[in-house]
Amino acid sequence: MFIIGVQAAIFDRESFAGATWNRKVGGYLTGYTLCLFIFYSLAPILFRLASAAFFNISLLTANFWGVIIGINVFKYSVHWMYPIAFVCIMLGQGIYYLGRQVLGEARKPWLGANQEKGVSGVGTAKKKISSSSAAAAGHGADEGVRVGNGSDNSV
């Protein structure tokens, strides 16, 4: 963040000098920075729980929420087909999400075979299996983290 600030001060100093600086602008900049912080903090969790395709489809909805804020805060007007496009995007996301396999997005092809015997963590195949088997048995999910190499039968 420091490096970006220095670059902005060097290359955009005229823009900064001519800009309007008040509480409202500061609030917008703070809100924008907070939104980016939340986005970049939660994106890795979404990648773990879902996939890049689901993430990209979800990004298409971000434009719609930006338009909603623009309408309410900046008094923008939009074309009448924009809400129809949003509904189509949400339908596509729903179809993609409902077309999952038993393990859903928990199975990662790049991790190879026997993922179910590996680490039990957020969004992993082992956690998905232990959670579903615990729900079927009627008691809480296994909370421990166990490490295996995928070739043993240890529990």
UniProtKB/TrEMBL annotation:
Chain ranges passing through the membrane:
25-47, 54-74, 80-99
The membrane topology noted for this protein in its Swiss-Prot or TrEMBL record is: Multi-pass membrane protein
Region Disordered, annotated ranges: 132-155
- Decide whether keyword Transport is in the record: yes
Which Gene Ontology cellular-component terms appear in the entry? Answer: membrane
Alphabetically sorted, this entry's keywords are: Membrane, Transmembrane, Transmembrane helix, Transport
Where does it reside? Membrane
Its recorded name reads DUF914 domain-containing protein
**Species of origin:** Ajellomyces capsulatus (strain H88) (Darling's disease fungus)
